[in-house]
Amino acid sequence: MRKLPLLVASLATLAPLLLAGQAPAYANGDRDGIDACAQEAKAAGFAKDKSAEGRNDDAIHAVAIAMAESGCRHDARHQNNPNDPDPGSWDLGAWQINERWYPEVHGHDAGVVTAENWQDMGWSARKARQINEDGTGRGWASWAAWNLGTYRQYLDQARDAVYRNW
Predict the structure, then answer these.
(1) Choice between 22 and 166, residue whose per-residue pLDDT is larger
(2) In whole angstroms, how large is the CA radius of gyration of the chain?
(3) What whole-number distance in Å separates Cα of residue 34 and Cα of residue 40?
(4) pLDDT tens digits for 119-146?
(5) What's CA 28's distance to the chain center, in Å?
(6) Most buried residue among 8, 11, 43, 121 by CB atoms closer than 10 A?
(7) Does pLDDT of 111 surpass 50?
(8) Which of 23-37, 86-100, 103-117, 147-161 has the lowest mean pLDDT?
(9) CA–CA separation, 42 vs 102, rounded Å?
(10) Is residue 119 packed enough to be buried (19+ CB in 10 Å), middle (13-18) or exposed (0-12)?
(11) Paired strand residues for 106
(12) d(CA 123, CA 93)
């Protein structure tokens, strides 16, 4: 019987949104911020602790990289300069997945980017995990934030967010 008050309270919280025809903002992975990144990293299957394998916490690195790459913004976009290794291509979403190297960010062959995939933070987190663990041995080296070391300034914040959200 104790579950009934929780259910009623939950429905009472959601009722105004449902009656207005709106879903909670996070329904489409369109939340922003470090806690959203940590929650999506968890949902994507990043390990909180891989120390048994001689590795650091992949979830913490994932969140720190997303902070360095996009500020954990689900709709972040960056066009690479003509003299970059990927001239004119776009890095998209919270984890800045490159459209040229990972063309599935496009909705179809015409090259139209669709919000259904790259602007969904959950999609971005799942793709980041797939890239990090793709078996090439590159791991996080696929991200500029890793190679430049800019993710390091976010490690403490990322650790706090991961442990707060796990």
Answers:
(1) 166
(2) 18
(3) 10
(4) 888 888 988 998 888 777 788 898 999 9
(5) 13
(6) 121
(7) no
(8) 103-117
(9) 22
(10) buried
(11) 113
(12) 9
pLDDT band at 23 (very low <50, low <70, confident <90, very high): very low
Task: Reply yes or no on whether the pLDDT at 158 is more than 90.
Answer: yes
CA distances, 78 to each of 20, 86, 91, 162 (Å): 35, 12, 5, 26
Q: DSSP string spanning the chain?
A: -THHHHHHHHHHHHHHHHHTT---GGGGT---SHHHHHHHHHHHT--S--GGGT---HHHHHHHHHHHHHSS-TT-EEEPPTTSSSTT-EEETTTTEETTTSGGGBSSTT--B-HHHHT-HHHHHHHHHHHHTSSSS-GGGGSHHHHHTGGGGGHHHHHHHHHHH-
What pLDDT shows up at residue 55?
Answer: 56
